[in-house]
Each structure stands twice: as C-alpha cells, then as structure tokens.
Amino acid sequence: MSRTALIDYGSGNLRSAEKALARVGAKTVVTSDPDAVAGAERIVLPGVGAFADCMRGLHAIPGMIAALEECVLKRGAPFLGVCVGMQLLASVGREFGDHAGLGWIAGEVVRLSPSDPALKIPHMGWNALEQTRPHPVLAGIAPGADVYFVHSYAMRPRDGAHVLATSDYGGAFAAVVGRDNILGVQFHPEKSQAVGLALLAKFLTWRP
C-alpha cells in the first residue's frame, strides 16, 4: 500500500482521520513537513473550522503550499480534501469576508441557506449521498447512502461537471467534488462508518 501523507496544519481532526485510514490499511504519516508532503504518494487534507483560519494555517508552514502543488498538480498524486479541506480547493471562501483559496477547482464557498427556516445552521448529522457522476472512489456506494456532515458552508464549483455527488439540506449542495487526480468530500468519512471506510479504501487504490 502506498504512503499517504495526512497534513497537520493545525486545522484538522487528525486522530480520527488517522485511525480511519489505518483501519483500511493505509500507511499514513501525519506531517507538517513540506519535504514529506512533496514525496508522498497520496495526500489527505483534513479541515475543521473557518475557511480563512485554515488557509492561514497552510500559509503559516513555509513551503507547504508549494509542496502540495508539486505533489498534486505537477506529479499528479491522488488528493483527498475533507470538509474544510475540500472547501480550500475553491477559488474563494466567503466566510467572514472573501478569502482566496487554493484555486484548484474554480468556484466559491458560500453559506448554506436552507429553504426551510426550521433547519438549523450548522448542518450536523446524517444525510443521504446522491451520486451525480461516476467516479472510481464512489464506485460501489449505494444510492442514498447516509454520511455524516458538520458544516455551515458549502462549495459551489463554477463548472457543474466538477460536482460528483450532492446531498440535500433545504436544497441541494455539493457533497463530493473532483477533477483529474483531485477529490473533495464535504462530509467526514472518518465519522461515516462503513460508507466512509469504503470510500477511504477506494481512495487508497485509486490510480487517476
């Protein structure tokens, strides 16, 4: 099994993510070392909290963004962003002002606005995943499978073809996005029991 770098930049639920990856056989290194990231075979970027804080966390590690770009954009290593780690793929996040993201998938991150005023923000809990486009990492996941979300904002890609699955919370939002070797999930695979573990296992064998 290839070596997977789980990025430690002060903004992720690292212990749960590391344990979930271990359960599906990943050889994982939790690291904030850009050299380790640049040489990794696969990358997982977690994220919890506000968009701007997470971007600041990445920028605060000298060479980290350059290492991610070298590994993911130039070498084509499979990449998985989780929750805010997915949102950081966007061009801009609109949480507490406008903040530049990585820009790997053109689009914006906007606040959820459920059509039903009884639905509370943040959106917390289990919701059905509806695949809109085929993808190897989603293969075998049953239509309507429940996954676990905790978020107040969601990504809105500019190109609808980059939305691979949606969920509904008073309106549809992007639950999985991707292009080329880049994949992002708004939900938490490490908290999504069998479905989440199945997705992580597929990610470990995915060869874009």
Summary?
This protein is an alpha/beta fold.
Written account of the structure:
Helix content is 25%, strand content 32%. The protein has one domain (3-205): Rossmann fold (3-Layer(aba) Sandwich), CATH 3.40.50.880. The longest helix is centred in the C-terminal third of the chain and has 13 residues, at 193-205. The chain has helices at residues 14-23, 34-38, 51-59, 64-74, 84-87, 193-205, and strands at residues 3-7, 27-31, 42-45, 79-82, 92-93, 99-100, 107-111, 123-131, 145-151, 153-157, 163-168, 172-179, 182-185. The strands form two sheets. The protein has a nine-stranded mixed beta sheet with strand order 2-1-3-4-13-12-11-8-9, sandwiched between helices.
Topology record:
Blueprint: E1 3-7, H1 14-23, E2 27-31, H2 34-38, E3 42-45, H3 51-59, H4 64-74, E4 79-82, H5 84-87, E5 92-93, E6 99-100, E7 107-111, E8 123-131, E9 145-151, E10 153-157, E11 163-168, E12 172-179, E13 182-185, H6 193-205
Parallel strand pairs: 1-2, 1-3, 3-4, 4-13, 5-7
Antiparallel strand pairs: 5-6, 7-10, 8-9, 8-11, 11-12, 12-13
